[in-house]
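Exercise: predict the structure of this protein bound to (3R)-3-hydroxy-L-norvaline.
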Amino acid sequence: MRRILVTGALGQIGSELVPALRQRWGADAVVASDIRVPAGGAPEEGPFAVLDVTNLRQLQDLVRRHDVGTIYHLAALLSATAEERPHVAWELNMGGLYKILEVARENRCALFHPSSIAAFGPGTPRVGTPQETVQRPNTIYGVTKVSGELLCDYYAKRFGLDVRGLRFPGLISSVAPPGGGTTDYAVAIFYDALRHGRYECFLGPDTRLDMMYMPDAIRATVELMAADPARLRHRNAFNVAAVNVTPDELGAEIRRHLPGFELTYDVDPVRQAIADSWPQSLDDSAARQEWGWQPRFDLAAMTADMLAKLRLKLRLPA
Ligand code: VAH
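Solution:
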């Protein structure tokens, strides 16, 4: 079998996708790559390469050297960081994707590329956002996501590339912290609840967004890539949803486990404006119908599991 390449492997999704793919296909079958080497040196669990996805030559060499047949392209800036550095966001998120698509085309690789609820904008119906609707985002991250969706569609149609994708909601993980996302509050809240018994949230109490626990996100990714192509009408950029929640509701759920937990608010206007431009809830029926998407973790199950996992990670008593 040709190998699998994961870009952005040390990031929020990659940190859990790489072990899941290695468990399924074998350690040697998955080449993890990132622009940085982790603090303790290259991980030993399987092949690791330093890769700048905006460097076409480096990318071509890596794909050929390892005989890569499938790419999970995760290297990108998240929404809040992208807003601080829009030029870097365009260069990395779009420039990187374009080069990945070119290398995938030349080497006949299958490709997974994540999109996001950020691909929608203020003109989009906010509740039960349909699979196909208005997409006029007003953040640079959203602009790169919707442009990325269109470019992937183009490569599929024009060059017959097998490119698939999901519009992820905010992702919540006990393994790797997110970096620079608007939905990061939903991860930080768990750490602060356990460590300090309180959390100050940068989004307002009623900011309703879709979220998903990382084990569901990893399973969605793997299931989409394994799906029968004949059944996929949308292929690229499927809406997926799991947990629909506000900071206030998430705080209340945490309080069921930690009764003294205090949640206060100090709203960051930049991230609040980003969140307010996104849908409150997605309609993911196309994913359910075309490849059988079904989340396993609701708010209660996710909260219980996050707290249990973080207690172990932070060495706190159960
Ligand atoms: C962000 N978590 O905040 C990401 C995202 C759902 C939004 O794609 O940037």
